[in-house]
Design goal:
Chain A: Its main location: membrane. Chain A: Belongs to the binding-protein-dependent transport system permease family. Chain A: It is a multi-pass membrane protein. Chain A: InterPro entries: BP-dependent_transpt_permease, MetI-like, MetI-like_sf, OppC_N. The complex is a heterotrimer of chains A (about 350), B (about 350) and C (about 325). Helices cover about 65% and strands about 5% of the residues of chain A. Chain A has twelve helices and three strands. Chain A has a three-stranded antiparallel β-sheet with strand order 1-2-3, with no helix packed on it. In chain A, a hairpin with a 2-residue loop joins strand 2 and strand 3. Chain A is flat. Chain A starts with a strand and ends in a 6-residue tail after the last helix. Chain B has a domain of about 220 residues: P-loop containing nucleotide triphosphate hydrolases (Rossmann fold, 3-Layer(aba) Sandwich), CATH 3.40.50.300. Chain B is about 35% helix and about 20% strand. In chain B, the strands form two sheets. Chain B has an eight-stranded mixed β-sheet with strand order 7-8-9-3-10-11-13-12. In chain B, helix 3 packs across helix 4, helix 4 packs across helix 6 and helix 6 packs parallel to helix 7. The longest helix of chain B has 18 residues. Chain C has a single domain, classed as Rossmann fold, CATH 3.40.50. Chain C is about 30% helix and about 20% strand. In chain C, helix 3 packs parallel to helix 5. Chain C starts with 7 loop residues before the first strand and ends with a helix. Classes of the chains: A mainly alpha (about 350), B alpha/beta (about 350), C alpha/beta (about 325). Chains in contact: A-B, A-C, B-C. At the B-C interface, helix 6, helix 7, helix 8, helix 9 and helix 10 of B face helix 5, helix 6, helix 7, helix 8 and helix 9 of C.
Chain lengths: ~350, ~350, ~325
């Protein structure tokens, strides 16, 4: 017992019984953790159950998305990546308008010149400003990444969702089709499409999209199958909720986080595929440019003028790295197991 | 007298978006060799966190065991252990049986290998000896055909069988302390009875101490030597099983005892309930944790936290009803006469 | 027994699941019983005995393999008219076992309760949601909160409010208390009993805990591996259990009294439930029954009336 009781004044018992009036004549002093507490009889009045208090929810209300955003904000690496990506996107949109040199302007007197104040990243072998070209090329690379990801997301989610929700024979047939598509190497598709439509951005996007949605479709199908076992889906069915509403209100919000994470990881894949195809000459054709095409040109001058390879290569790898790190951060932020 | 395990002023907090959740707020108890201590309480009262702290399983950085906490195993403060010492301690000195037998076994490993793992790690024996010991253990927990069973995977076992396997794993190195975290909650009544019988038998043979964690006082009645009732991160009453079951001195203990429906009771009659929900320990109440749900709550309960009152040598409780003034105001000698209507 | 028409009539209900390679899982195998308006029928049994499947099939969430389910005198498998199906779905509701999995984590409490009201055009809007929350003892201001902010017992009450929102006549309570603490179980049971009196509800109460089932039910059916082995009024079942399985279940209920608990004799029920896949003829309890005779292995026992409204399926008792 680490408390001391001090009876200040004794008191006759008859007076004590069920008095409601304030009664300070008898009190006790308890020493408790360095503080003196004066106990009076008044304090011992019966209060009973406090219903308001006993059902109180103490925590502040927070939705899943708010919580995920809060956790993402704590992740410095992911936030830096996100800042970097926003910077790159803004530069791709606005830099060509502000920067004094155009991407196809040639300055043949200073070909292969290194970095100067006037040309921040230097010039290439045809005397074109690399800084200007990075952002124009970035437009192509990023839009292929984003458009490709959005298209494969739409197709993958709808396809996987239908397959998972209806199940049975529909599921079997749809998944066999996916398996066939997965078996076709994407190089073959790219070559076929570029034969039909000619080389360029559109055919590149089409070719990449044809093969890339399958992964997401499988993922979504698995998730939907999982969720269909959940009791709240059953509850919605028992409440007579129509199918499209079940998909819209119960299934989609619960797989959205996985879709977002997966998409963040797909974008760098697209950027790399574009860069790779342009590098080997299957993608973007001059005078248009992209990071991959620039890297291909720079590679020819690599031994003497490394800056021509360095800047486009850095653009590709840093952007891909940023997307991957952001995706990691998102995955952690959305993970219900990390939720506290 | 020294105890096998002594927990002194254990405080554990979790850091969350809403602030610091004080899951365990100063818990002190002990366990002697060969005895069974039951820690009883509702979900969220901190009983599982307490057991995790004893096993060194409070995950940082969210979880934090406060500095002045002490957990002494055979007189040594295990909170100061290094990772290596923890690994030796887990399994060899203390074993744990988890609540959900469905998720606490590795689905891709054969049952035999999962049991053998612990034996090989802690006891320097050959593979063959370990194998023999595994079969022996499975026999001990009453699993038929152990020789065939060790070649099987967890999904080929039913819920009750898996819990037996879990017990076998916990038993592998004959630990002196076993912690059973709601070992029967996920099981059917008939299987529940079997598992409790098994635990009792093992204790008789091995003479190990058991800390049994549960929310159902009925489960521990036939098994526990001593009972500690936890509420809102504190022990509100502690005593021998007889004292707790026959002479509960805290309104919460009494309410818990009464929550089990009596089969003699008339159908659909109003059951005795504890109204409301336990407090969220993000903002623990200033006074007694149980105050807002307590029928006998007084002004003082909301303001100040009660101190422990020693009822007998082994029996203590924290409730303002035991205060001299309360006894005088309401005119009773024994709190028992008030809380049993 | 009762001259009124039963609200729900289950006749020879069978629900088999085709497990492809493994064979056929007979989850519910020839079960018949009736539920009268305002009554509660309890179904008890160990996990895997088919009680949940039985409840879900009655609600039309699974199509029945064989047999008939009548609701208010109409066979629910024959409901063709869309209007009738919607009406049926409005009248029957369900309360689920796991309060953590039965509420959509991305929806607010208000949206969860409103879902059924929107589907069935129940008027009242926000006022009714608040009224329902108050009815289950929750603060009216919590409509904009998310399920994860509540405790298990509170979530279960939100689930009850959701079921009540569409003004149902019949509710299947699928183990509504088994995931909750003992102290909270009583809260939910009291609430269910009170709501039954206030709203004239009819329940099918499914649980594995015989003590709670006995408390809330008028009649109790004991299921074992897809079949009813005993059916009677709940008091009769508790006072004069006939089937060996029922006796074992009763004796396994833990009593919070160390003296009684240490001295009481638990009827030994060794082993565990067998596999309901491809089970052959004969009494399914045979492998765990020490009174089993030769006859038990040959034919499946049928429910026979041994007392007023007390049915048992057991060869041994029949011959005794």
């Amino acid at each position: 017992m680490n408390f001391i009781l001090l009876k200040l004044k004794s008191f006759s018992r008859s007076f004590v019984l069920r008095t409601k009036s304030p009664d300070f004549e008898r009190s006790m002093v308890i020493r408790m953790e360095n503080q003196n507490i004066v106990l009076t009889k008044e304090m011992f009045a019966r209060v009973g159950v406090n219903e308001q208090q006993s059902e109180k929810v103490a925590r502040p209300s927070i939705s899943y998305w708010q919580d995920a955003w809060r956790r993402l904000k704590q992740n410095k690496v992911a936030m830096i990546s996100m800042g970097f990506l926003i910077f790159v996107i803004l530069m791709c949109i606005f830099a060509p308008y502000i920067y004094p040199h155009s991407y196809d302007e040639q300055n043949l007197a200073y070909t292969n010149q290194g970095s100067t104040v006037q040309h921040i990243f230097g010039l290439d072998d045809l005397g074109r400003d690399i800084f200007a070209r990075i952002w124009v090329g970035g437009r192509v690379s990023l839009s292929i990444g984003l458009v490709g990801a959005v298209i494969s997301l739409a197709v993958g989610v709808i396809y996987g969702g239908i397959s998972g929700y209806f199940g049975g024979v529909i599921d079997d047939v749809m998944m066999r089709i996916v398996e066939v598509l997965v078996g076709i190497p994407y190089m073959v598709v790219v070559i076929l499409v570029s034969i039909v439509l000619g080389k360029g951005m559109v055919s590149l996007i089409i070719a990449l999209c044809i093969t890339s949605w399958t992964g997401l479709a499988r993922l979504v199908r698995g998730q939907v199958l999982n969720l269909m076992e959940c009791e709240y889906i059953l509850a919605a069915k028992a409440l007579g909720t129509p199918t499209f509403k079940i998909i819209l209100k119960h299934l989609l919000p619960n797989i959205l986080s996985i879709i977002i994470v997966n998409t963040t990881f797909t974008i760098p894949g697209f950027i790399f595929s574009e860069a790779f195809l342009s590098f080997i000459g299957m993608g973007i054709q001059p005078p248009n440019t992209s990071w991959g095409a620039m890297a291909a040109l720079g590679q020819q001058q690599m031994s003497y003028y490394p800056h021509e390879l360095l800047f486009p290569a850095a653009a590709i790898s840093l952007t891909m790295l940023a997307f991957n790190l952001l995706g990691d951060g998102l995955r952690d932020a959305f993970d219900p197991k990390l939720r506290q | 007298m020294s105890h096998l395990l002594e927990v002194n002023n254990l405080k554990v907090s979790f850091h969350t978006y809403a602030g610091e959740v004080q899951a365990v707020r100063g818990v002190t108890f002990y366990v002697n060799e060969g005895e069974t201590l039951a820690i009883v309480g509702e979900s969220g009262c901190g009983k599982t966190v307490t057991s995790k702290a004893i096993m060194g399983l409070v995950a940082s950085p969210q979880g934090e065991v406060k500095k002045d906490s002490e957990i002494k195993f055979k007189g040594i403060n295990i909170l100061k252990y290094t990772n290596k010492q923890w690994q030796d301690y887990r399994g060899k000195d203390a074993g744990m049986i988890f609540q959900d037998p469905m998720t606490s076994l590795n689905p891709t490993m054969k049952i035999g290998n999962q049991i053998r793992e612990g034996i090989i790690k802690h006891q320097k024996v050959s593979k063959k000896e370990a194998q023999e010991r595994t079969i022996e253990l499975l026999k001990k927990v009453n699993i038929p055909n152990p020789i065939e069973r060790i070649q099987q995977y967890p999904h080929e076992f039913s819920g009750g069988m898996r819990q037996r396997v879990m017990i076998a794993i916990a038993l592998a190195c004959n630990p002196q302390l076993m912690i059973a975290d709601e070992p029967t909650t996920a099981l059917d009544v008939t299987i529940q009875a079997q598992i409790i019988k098994l635990l009792k038998e093992i204790q008789r043979v091995n003479h190990s101490a058991i800390i049994m964690i549960t929310h159902d006082l009925g489960v521990v009645a036939g098994m526990a030597d001593r009972v500690a009732v936890m509420y809102a991160g504190k022990i509100v009453e502690e005593g021998s099983a007889e004292e707790i079951f026959e002479n509960p001195q805290h309104p919460y203990t009494y309410a818990l005892l009464n929550a089990v429906p009596n089969l003699e009771l008339e159908n659909k009659a109003e059951l005795h309930v504890i109204p409301g929900t336990p407090p969220d320990l993000v903002a623990p109440p200033k006074g007694c944790g149980f105050a807002s749900r307590c029928e006998y709550c007084m002004e003082v309960c909301n303001r100040y936290e009660p101190q422990y009152t020693q009822i007998s040598k082994s029996h203590r409780t924290m409730c303002w009803l035991h205060d001299e003034i309360a006894k005088e105001v309401y005119g009773f000698d024994n709190v028992r006469s008030v809380i049993k209507k | 027994m009762n001259s009124r028409e039963p609200l729900v009539k289950v006749e020879h209900l069978k629900k088999y699941f085709n497990m492809r390679k493994k064979g056929v899982l007979k989850a519910v195998d020839d079960v018949s019983f009736e539920i009268y308006p305002g009554e509660t029928v309890g179904l008890v049994g160990e996990s895997g005995c088919g009680k949940t499947t039985c409840g879900r099939t009655i609600l039309g969430l699974y199509p029945a393999t064989e047999g008939k389910i009548e609701f208010q005198g109409k066979d629910i498998s024959q409901l063709k008219d869309k209007k009738e199906i919607i009406e049926f779905k409005k009248n029957v509701q369900m309360i689920f076992q796991d309060p953590y999995a039965s509420l959509n984590p991305r929806m607010t409490v208000g949206d969860i309760i409103a879902e059924g009201m929107i589907n069935h055009h129940v008027p009242g809007g926000n006022d009714r949601i608040q009224e329902l929350l108050a009815m289950v003892g929750l603060n009216k201001e919590y409509t904009n909160r998310f399920p994860h902010e509540f405790s298990g017992g509170q979530r279960q009450r939100i689930g009850i409010a959701r079921a009540l929102a569409v003004d149902p006549k019949f509710i299947v309570c699928d183990e509504p208390i088994s995931a909750l603490d003992v102290s909270i179980q009583a809260q939910v049971v009291n609430l269910l009993v009170r709501l039954q009196e206030q709203l004239g509800l009819t329940y099918l109460f499914i649980a594995h805990d015989l003590s709670m089932v006995k408390h809330i039910s008028d009649h109790v059916g004991v299921m074992y591996m897809g079949q009813l082995v005993e059916f009677s009024s709940s008091n009769e079942l508790y006072k004069h259990p006939a089937h060996f399985y029922t006796k074992a279940l009763l004796s396994a209920i833990p009593i919070p009294d160390p003296k009684l608990e240490k001295t009481k004799t638990v009827l030994p029920l060794e082993g565990e439930v067998g596999s309901p896949i491809n089970c052959g003829p004969g009494c399914r309890f045979m492998s765990r029954c020490k009174y089993a005779t030769e006859q038990c292995g040959i034919a499946t026992p049928e429910l026979k009336e041994i007392g007023k409204g007390h049915f048992v399926a057991c060869h041994v008792l029949e011959n005794a």
